[in-house]
């Protein structure tokens, strides 16, 4: 998936690997993350596949500027046109099995997860305030409707998951089901 994300980011224009990582973190970073350890091998692979072109900038940092080739644009648009699917949510899978977890550990994990969600929600609300101000200055905000809708989705999704986890924290504290490790 990182290949397609990189191609999509490069639709905006040429960027260095650092710029691509920063753009990922500042745009889709709420629901997708990429490390430099996965980014640079993907850039190399995409360059070898002739989907992007990496050009040395001549700076002392051996910095390359990556540009999307027409073949890369075509591949990205083909991926983008595929039917939508839902990603896996590990927290849902784990919580499904939480009846097997020690009650104290379960309570602690839910409390920690709730705090994490609250922090993410606070951060996303701050991003929303910034985006709202910047959107007012755009000549054609409608050109960014789908990007902005992802932020709305993120806020609503986080609020829903946080409410659900807080409801879970109110459930009666039961000991793990039979045949489980108490740890």
What descriptive keywords fit this protein?
three-stranded antiparallel beta sheet, elongated, mainly alpha, Arc Repressor Mutant, subunit A, 183 residues, single chain
Give a short overview.
This protein is mainly alpha-helical and 183 residues long. The chain contains 7 helices and 3 strands. The protein folds into 2 domains: 2-80, Arc Repressor Mutant, subunit A (Orthogonal Bundle), CATH 1.10.10; 90-169.
What does this structure look like?
- With 183 residues, the chain is mainly α.
- It folds into two domains: 2-80, Arc Repressor Mutant, subunit A (Orthogonal Bundle); 90-169.
- The protein has helices at 2-10, 17-26, 36-48, 70-80, 90-96, 103-136, 145-169; strands spanning 15-16, 52-56, 64-68.
- Strands 1-3-2 form a three-stranded antiparallel β-sheet.
- A hairpin with a 7-residue loop joins strand 2 (52-56) and strand 3 (64-68).
- The longest helix has 34 residues, at 103-136.
- The model has no long low-confidence stretch (mean pLDDT 88).
Layout of helices and strands, plus pairs?
Blueprint: H1 2-10, E1 15-16, H2 17-26, H3 36-48, E2 52-56, E3 64-68, H4 70-80, H5 90-96, H6 103-136, H7 145-169
Antiparallel strand pairs: 1-3, 2-3
Low-confidence runs (pLDDT<50, min 5 residues)? none
Class derived from helix and strand content:
mainly alpha
- Give the biggest beta sheet: 3 strands, antiparallel
The 3D shape can be described as elongated
Quaternary structure type: single chain
Order of helices and strands: HEHHEEHHHH
Number of distinct helices: 7
Strand percent estimate: 5-15%
Radius of gyration, Cα only, in angstroms? 21 Å
Number of strands: 3
Spatial strand sequence of the major β-sheet: 1-3-2
Give the overall pLDDT as a whole number.
Answer: 88
Domain count: the total is 2
The helix content is: 55-70%
How far from one another are the termini? 36 Å
């Amino acid at each position: 998936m990182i290949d397609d994300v990189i191609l999509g980011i490069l639709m905006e224009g040429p960027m260095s690997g650092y710029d691509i990582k920063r753009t990922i973190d500042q745009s889709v970073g709420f629901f997708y993350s990429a490390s430099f350890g996965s980014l640079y091998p993907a850039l190399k692979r995409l360059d070898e596949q002739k989907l992007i072109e990496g050009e040395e900038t001549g700076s002392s940092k051996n910095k390359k500027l990556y540009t999307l080739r027409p073949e890369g644009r075509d591949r990205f648009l083909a991926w983008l046109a595929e039917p939508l699917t839902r990603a896996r949510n590990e927290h849902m899978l784990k919580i499904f099995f939480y009846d097997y977890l020690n009650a104290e550990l379960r309570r602690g994990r839910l409390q920690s997860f709730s705090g994490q969600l609250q922090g993410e929600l606070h951060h996303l609300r701050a991003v929303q305030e910034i985006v709202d101000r910047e959107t007012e200055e755009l000549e054609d905000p409608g050109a960014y409707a789908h990007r902005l809708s992802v932020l709305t989705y993120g806020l609503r999704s986080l609020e829903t998951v946080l409410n659900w986890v807080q409801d879970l924290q109110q459930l009666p504290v039961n000991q793990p089901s039979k045949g489980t490790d108490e740890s």
